[in-house]
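Section 4.2 – Deliverable D4.2 (structural model, holo form)

The reporting period included a commitment to supply a predicted holo structure for the target in complex with S-adenosylmethionine. Inputs used:
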Amino acid sequence: MERKDLREQIRLSWNGAVGAHDSHRGDLSGVLRAGGSTLFPEELELLGDLEGKTLAHLQCNSGGDSLSLVLGGAAVTGVDISDEAISSARRLSAEAGIRANFERADVYDWLETAARRGRRFDIIFSSYGIVCWLPDLDAWARGIAAVLTGGGRFVLVDFHPAADMFDERWEHASAYPSGGERLLLEEGVSDYVADSGGGLTPAGFVEGERDFKNPHHSYLFQWGLGEIITALAAAGLRAVALKEYPYVNGERPFSAMGELPGRRMVPPEGVPAVPLMFGVCAEKA
Ligand SMILES: C[S@@+](CC[C@H](N)C(=O)[O-])C[C@H]1O[C@@H](n2cnc3c(N)ncnc32)[C@H](O)[C@@H]1O
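Output (structure tokens):
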């Protein structure tokens, strides 16, 4: 698996942004301690019953979702490349009094090592800003298949590649993503938690760090939906559900988005519906 240098740059950029993101989250540990959850209905539906399941949460970021999965009954291992994200997840776990295992690693290395060591999981889960950080879908899908138990499932909820065709003002400005084309993100990972205006902070929005500037640039990789599903199929993962949703949970990637109950962001009136998120559940035979 090449492009380690790019993934290391991505790690630096995430390390640069996690503190700003966390500064807006308020008393998230209190919400979790009281039995609240950061998960949305879309992933819960695809995940199904979690009770007694072993679950690897890949690209887990600061661990809010990982701990919510524990509350749902799963034994969770969260994995992320960012040192700051994993430290933050461990802190949140201690503050909330909810046990999960957090491991700092590049997902490609982690999958390879886990498979070699015979580690197996009933469920692998990833969500909201995942595929765009991956330079190689085939290695990723093969790695996931290798650590799933027979009959186990992979659940992914992510932003729909079709949304990348539009600029902030909903103009059709870019080609449909394909081929993993690399994009330089000069400004690095942004403070999208602040930009979401409370959509990503179930404990309430705290002003926190203002005018955040990331000192580290980053990269993105552009993949189409067909390429994602084909990589999973080639690895022996059969899609049993593929959903497309005309709204975004939590984030506000475009201007003038309306908000429906449940922190569901929709295009403004006059903009025809377009898929903005997708969800897949794929099973290993
Ligand atoms: C947008 S976040 C995912 C959101 C997350 N589900 C949440 O609940 O906040 C993307 C995460 O992917 C991680 N990441 C990016 N490249 C990675 C890699 N090669 N291996 C592991 N994690 C990676 C980043 O550090 C970041 O925490």
